[in-house]
Structures are given as structure tokens and as C-alpha cells.
User: Which sequence fits this backbone?
């Protein structure tokens, strides 16, 4: 190792939700970890409007976050449990997934991304083997003699046995490593809406299907809620041009009556894309989360799949080290890929199927899919198995 290089066993590029989780698990297992990120999390003040970015954190992901001491830092007020999930196109074909059906206290929690992100970074301070470089980016990376030589944008140099690419859908690490991602852009965009609702807040999240895209309700704390409107790219572009008052009127028409009156406090939109990398690995390198795969967000599985990646990769590394194996080698890293790539691909395929089936206006297909929902509601053990799989149980 060059004398002016700092050495870490693992460098995690990207300190978002997924990168922070893998870094914490490894640091708590006494790996020497460096996290590199450009932007720190936005602080969530108690009296501020909610973040537009909200995640449905499954009960399995919550259990992981509890184990690493993060969930407890968010604050009970800001973790809104949802115990029932309802989805329908015709009201007569409503499918209900209930926590009680699995003997669980809740299916999961709705949490603002920024509050979870903040809690993760606060936990960094408890790990004496974890170092943070922020703001910082990588300028160069080369794999020489079984180690990565990394150059940061300030000119400092790092040596590491393993690089974890957790730097999102436009991953710089993925591009530099030569791993190819293939996929497509859906002919839909998504409008996120932060709103206050009237009446008592509930523990139910619901989604109504339309051929142009679903409309969903995610309950938050107090009277806050997140509304998600999927539609054609042109329609979302039109909605973005409206004043908040005009958008409220559009919501009254487009969303089911059960929503009631809303007051909008903010919006954001993004196009929907799906891709998967040709591989998750190079020697001494692993991709996790959106750097490896993205998914249609209609089932809220993106963050949970990323957390499963992070937990699995960390488990593989920790177990290999405990057996005195060379944990950074491709042979060991393949165990992570074998456990996660198929699962991620299956979930992507399922979401694509839902998207394609419910995007058609053909009368025969509309009838068939609603009959299918009616059968799903009565499927008993099959529905239970689907729910358990989606929750990662």
C-alpha cells in the first residue's frame, strides 16, 4: 500500500438509505468502513411539512432497522403503521391484505425518507470503525493487486479490499466498473403530493387502478398523507403546471370519494424506469439497491429490496470472515448474487405484469383482471403466501 493512501476494508459509495444500512451492519461487525457521499441528509424538523419522498417500510425491514439501532431514533410519532392494504379497480373486486391475517401487529410503517436517512447517519457516530467523507465524490477507481485504488475529488487516495456501489440508479461505480444495465422507461410518470386530509387518520393504505395508472393513498402522522398519482407522461406534465388549488380540484375528480377534501402543500414528479444490471459483481466490488436494479414503484418495494440486498451482502461477508475465508473475493461475493438477483428479478417481473395487465382498455381484459382480483380475494392460503413473500417473511 502506498504510504499516502488511507486503508479501509470496505468503501461504500453512496450514503443513502441502502448504503447506510450496509455500512452500519459491517461497522458493527468490526469491519473498517468508509462511506463516501456528496450530500448529507436534510434535517426533519418536528414542525416542518413532511418530505415528499415517503417509503412503505415492511415489517421485515423494520426488524432489521431495529437490530442495528436505527428505528428507535426516528421517533414514534413519525412512524405511521399500516395494518391493511386495499387495492381495486372495481369496488366489487377489492383485494384486502390484513396484518391480522398473518398474525402480525402491522404490515409495516410509512416513513419519510429524510427522517430515516437522518436516523441512519446519527447512528454512524456510535461506530468507531466507520468513517464518513461528505461532501465527497470519487474521481477515479482502479483494481490493482487485489485492492481498489480510489481517488477522491479533493485528491486524497484510498485503498480498499471491497467497494460497494450504493450510489443510486445513475451509479458512477457501475459505469466505471463496466457493468451494463439494461431496461426501459415506462410510458408513465409519477406525481407525489404532500397533503393534509380531514377527519381521523387511518392505518390503511390503498390503491385504485386505472388504465392510465394507479392512484394511491399513504397515511402519515397527524393529518398528513402522501398521495401518489401515476399517469401518462403528458398528463403528469399538465398537472405540474396547475396551481395547488386547481390541482386540489383535479384530485377531487380523479381520486375515490373516500379520500375526502385535501389541502396540498407540495408536489414533485419523476418518470418511471426499470432496469437490471447484467451482473452485480466484479472482483472486489458489489452493487446493491438502485445501483443494481430499479422497479416499478406501484407496490412500494424499492427500498425494501435494497435493504434485503444490504443485509444479505453484509451477512455473506461477516460469515466468510468468521470462517477465515478471503471475503472480498469473487467466489465469496457470488453467494450474495445467487441469493439476491433471482429474488429482485422475480419482483420486477411481477410488477411489470401488474403494470401491463392494468394498462389496457380492452373490455375483455378489464373483465378478466377484475375477475382475477375477485379470485385473489378469496384465495386464502395463496394470498397469504403472496403477502408473506412481499414482506420478506
Assistant:
Amino acid at each position: 500500500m502506498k504510504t499516502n493512501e488511507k486503508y479501509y476494508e470496505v468503501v461504500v459509495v453512496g450514503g443513502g438509505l441502502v448504503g447506510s444500512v450496509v455500512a452500519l451492519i459491517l461497522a458493527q461487525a468490526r469491519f473498517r468502513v468508509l462511506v463516501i457521499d456528496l450530500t448529507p441528509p436534510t434535517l426533519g424538523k418536528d414542525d416542518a411539512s413532511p418530505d415528499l419522498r415517503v417509503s412503505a417500510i415492511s415489517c421485515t425491514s423494520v426488524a432489521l432497522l431495529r437490530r442495528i439501532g436505527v428505528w428507535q431514533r426516528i421517533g414514534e410519532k413519525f412512524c405511521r403503521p399500516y395494518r391493511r392494504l386495499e387495492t381495486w379497480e372495481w369496488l366489487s373486486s377489492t383485494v384486502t391484505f390484513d396484518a391480522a391475517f398473518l398474525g402480525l401487529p402491522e404490515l409495516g410503517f410509512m416513513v419519510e425518507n429524510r427522517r430515516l436517512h437522518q436516523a441512519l447517519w446519527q447512528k454512524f457516530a456510535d461506530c468507531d470503525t466507520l468513517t464518513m467523507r461528505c461532501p465527497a465524490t470519487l474521481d477515479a477507481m482502479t483494481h490493482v493487486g487485489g485492492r481498489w485504488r480510489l481517488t477522491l475529488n479533493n485528491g486524497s487516495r484510498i485503498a480498499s479490499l471491497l467497494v460497494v456501489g450504493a450510489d443510486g440508479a445513475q451509479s458512477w461505480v457501475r459505469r466505471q466498473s463496466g457493468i451494463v444495465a439494461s431496461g426501459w422507461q415506462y410510458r408513465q410518470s409519477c406525481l407525489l403530493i404532500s397533503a393534509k386530509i380531514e377527519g381521523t387518520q387511518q392505518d390503511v393504505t390503498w390503491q385504485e387502478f386505472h388504465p392510465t395508472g394507479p392512484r394511491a393513498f399513504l397515511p402519515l402522522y397527524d393529518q398528513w398523507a402522501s398521495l401518489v398519482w401515476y399517469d401518462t407522461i403528458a398528463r403528469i406534465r399538465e398537472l405540474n403546471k396547475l396551481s395547488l388549488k386547481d390541482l386540489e380540484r383535479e384530485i377531487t375528480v380523479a381520486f375515490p370519494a373516500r379520500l375526502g377534501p385535501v389541502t396540498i402543500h407540495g408536489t414533485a414528479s419523476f418518470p418511471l424506469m426499470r432496469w437490471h444490471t447484467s451482473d452485480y459483481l466484479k472482483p472486489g466490488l458489489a452493487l446493491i439497491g438502485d445501483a443494481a436494479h430499479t422497479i416499478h414503484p406501484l407496490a412500494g418495494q424499492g427500498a425494501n429490496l435494497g435493504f434485503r440486498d444490504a443485509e444479505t451482502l453484509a451477512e455473506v461477508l461477516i460469515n466468510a470472515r468468521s470462517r477465515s475465508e478471503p471475503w472480498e473475493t469473487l467466489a465469496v461475493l457470488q453467494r450474495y448474487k445467487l441469493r439476491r438477483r433471482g429474488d429482485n428479478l422475480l419482483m420486477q417481473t411481477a410488477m411489470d405484469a401488474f403494470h401491463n395487465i392494468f394498462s389496457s382498455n380492452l373490455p375483455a381484459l378489464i373483465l378478466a383482471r377484475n375477475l382475477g382480483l375477485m379470485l385473489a380475494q378469496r384465495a386464502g392460503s395463496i394470498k397469504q403466501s403472496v403477502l408473506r413473500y412481499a414482506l420478506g417473511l
